[in-house]
């Protein structure tokens, strides 16, 4: 029969089998190895006796061995022995060792404990992940009875039992964890190794902050002005890796982002992204869209505007501005000195055109400025300024006085041939716009044909044209005027009356020369000169009875800034309608009073 002192106490008895005298000695022996023939003394016992059926002085003697529960071997070793009883007599030959025996396992007090994970002892640090379950085991040396085990994090008892299943949290970081065991005396507890907990905390959230404030749906920034943002995560260990993104574009990798937005960033999403354990498990912060307030941009404004004294000049243009903060539209003369009566403005009108979410400037507003021209001093350069909270955009425009060209001057013929003639003149002021000179020709001073147009971009200068296809020996009337986009100017002060040279056959000239030579002799030279003078003389106070229409051609001579062209076979019906009503005064006056001397 086996006995376990870790479970219970035991009592072993040894008794003489018969009446005995004198009193024997009784000893308890043990054998710790079943195969050994060696017996060790455990204890001597003073037997008790009973009369029993014996006749005095004989008695029956009994020895009892009591071992209490949790009795350990002297060295607390794991000891299991077999007890025997030996009865000794004065006559040693009568000594008896009982054949009966009892196997007894002694208690073993817990003297050591070990904290293990996956059958491995944990030394200085136990790395765990917050929120993820962990299983640990407390292993003791041989102990009898089974030990009582308690688990501690820091000084707090968290569980009991050989195995611990727990879920660490961030508050457990750097706390020591261990098990404590005892099995006989609660005052004799032993602690296991005490590793400190390193609690990994996975990044689960991130926040985009500006000035320690969480940014929600929209982040308003100014184009060109530096912005500082911060990416804040929840508790995490180890420190997270952080990336910054503008749309899909990577722009930074630190906790704080310092960047300078531009107008092209408008409406892009900005956010930070964080992870600290697995790059495949990144978390995004809130993703506000950028509202980039940018300086306005004037779009499609004309550089020149027409103006008339006493009237309003309307300047209308579109402009881009993605913010209405401090939005103003103004116009001022370029030369602020000496401006007293430069005009007045009607109220600025900003049409509520929807704001477009585009990276390319599109018109968000339409402005209409009305400048009243009070005098000629109000014409000239103006600066249009559109300004918002970020800054201005400026454009220069010019209000130009709308006048027709001045009449040409110094209009005269420079060459007259049988079928062509050359005309030259000097321009007057062009009214601020490109002017075109028109030469008209008539055979009767009544019906006029446009035979030459010369376009000049320069303000003034000398111009010329050649009219071809004329009839030899015919008389023509020629007049000249200029026009620009504002209308036709006055005719030149003179109307030229010119007779082309007659064609003279060579044979006739020989006959005339011979005849005159025979009759007059040395007077031939004077006669010829007189004849030529008669041919090229102007016919004064006479209207030509020749053909009413003919084919005219002209050649224009211009400088680098003018363009010449001609219209042939044109009559008065082909002149542009805007210039059809000519100055009747020129035709009503005597044409001979307007003849320019050659």
From TrEMBL:
Residues 1-97, 120-191, 195-291 form the Ig-like domain. It is a single-pass type I membrane protein. GO terms for biological process: cell-cell adhesion. Keywords: Disulfide bond, Glycoprotein, Immunoglobulin domain, Membrane, Transmembrane, Transmembrane helix. The keyword Transmembrane applies. The keyword tRNA processing does not apply. The chain crosses the membrane at residues 516-538. One of its GO terms (cellular component) is plasma membrane. It is found in: Membrane. SMART domains: FN3, IG. Residues 407-503 form the Fibronectin type-III domain. This is Uncharacterized protein. It comes from Potamilus streckersoni.
């Amino acid at each position: 029969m086996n006995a376990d002192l870790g479970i219970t106490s035991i009592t072993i008895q040894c008794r003489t089998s018969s009446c005995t005298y004198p009193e024997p000695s009784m000893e308890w022996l043990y054998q710790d190895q079943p195969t050994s023939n060696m017996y060790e003394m455990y204890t001597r016992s003073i037997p008790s006796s009973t009369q029993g059926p014996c006749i005095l002085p004989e008695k029956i003697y009994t020895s009892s061995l009591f071992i209490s529960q949790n009795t350990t071997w002297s060295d607390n070793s794991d000891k299991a022995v077999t007890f025997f009883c030996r009865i000794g007599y004065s006559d040693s030959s009568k000594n008896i060792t009982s054949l009966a025996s009892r196997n007894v396992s002694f208690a073993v007090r817990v003297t050591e404990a070990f904290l293990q994970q996956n059958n491995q002892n944990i030394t200085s640090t136990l790395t765990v992940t917050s929120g993820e379950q962990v299983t640990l085991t407390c292993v003791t040396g041989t102990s009898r009875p089974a030990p009582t085990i308690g688990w501690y994090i820091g000084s707090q008892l968290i569980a009991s039992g050989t195995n611990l299943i727990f879920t660490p949290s961030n508050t457990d970081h750097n706390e020591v964890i261990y098990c404590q065991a005892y099995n006989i005396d609660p005052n004799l507890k032993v602690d296991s190794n005490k590793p400190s907990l390193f609690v990994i905390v996975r990044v689960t959230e991130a926040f985009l902050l500006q000035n320690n404030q969480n940014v929600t749906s929209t982040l308003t920034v100014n184009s060109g002005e530096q912005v500082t943002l911060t990416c804040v995560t929840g508790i995490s260990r180890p420190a997270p890796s952080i990336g910054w993104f503008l749309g899909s574009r990577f722009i930074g990798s630190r906790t704080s982002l310092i960047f300078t937005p531009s107008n092209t960033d408008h409406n892009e999403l900005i956010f930070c992204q964080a992870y600290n354990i697995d790059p495949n498990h990144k978390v995004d912060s809130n993703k506000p869209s950028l509202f980039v307030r940018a300086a306005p941009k004037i779009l499609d404004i004309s550089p020149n505007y027409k103006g008339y004294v006493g009237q309003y000049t309307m300047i209308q243009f579109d402009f881009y501005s993605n913010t209405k903060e401090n939005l103003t539209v103004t116009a001022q003369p370029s030369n602020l000195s000496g401006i007293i009566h430069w005009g007045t403005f009607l109220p600025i009108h900003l049409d509520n055109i929807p704001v477009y979410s585009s990276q390319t400037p599109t018109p968000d507003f339409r402005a209409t400025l009305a400048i009243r021209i009070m005098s000629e001093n109000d014409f000239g350069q103006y600066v249009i300024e559109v300004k918002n909270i970020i800054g201005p955009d400026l454009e220069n425009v010019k209000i130009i006085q709308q006048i027709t060209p001045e009449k040409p001057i110094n209009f005269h013929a420079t060459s007259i041939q049988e079928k062509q003639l050359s005309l030259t003149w000097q321009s007057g002021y062009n009214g601020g716009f490109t002017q075109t000179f028109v030469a008209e020709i008539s055979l009767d001073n009544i019906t006029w044909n446009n035979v030459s147009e010369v376009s000049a971009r320069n303000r003034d200068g000398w111009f010329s044209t050649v009219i071809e296809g004329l009839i030899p020996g015919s008389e023509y009337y020629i007049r000249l005027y200029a026009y620009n986009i504002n209308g036709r100017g006055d005719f030149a002060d003179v109307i030229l009356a010119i007779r082309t040279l007659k064609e003279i056959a060579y044979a006739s000239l020989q006959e005339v020369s011979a005849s005159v030579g025979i009759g007059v002799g040395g007077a031939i030279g004077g006669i010829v000169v007189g004849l030529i003078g008669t041919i090229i003389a102007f016919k004064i106070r006479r209207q030509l009875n020749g053909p009413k229409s003919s084919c005219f051609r002209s050649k224009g001579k211009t400088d680098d800034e003018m363009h010449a062209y001609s219209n042939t076979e044109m009559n008065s019906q082909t002149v542009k309608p805007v210039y059809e009503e000519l100055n009747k005064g020129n035709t009503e006056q005597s044409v001979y009073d307007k003849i320019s001397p050659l």
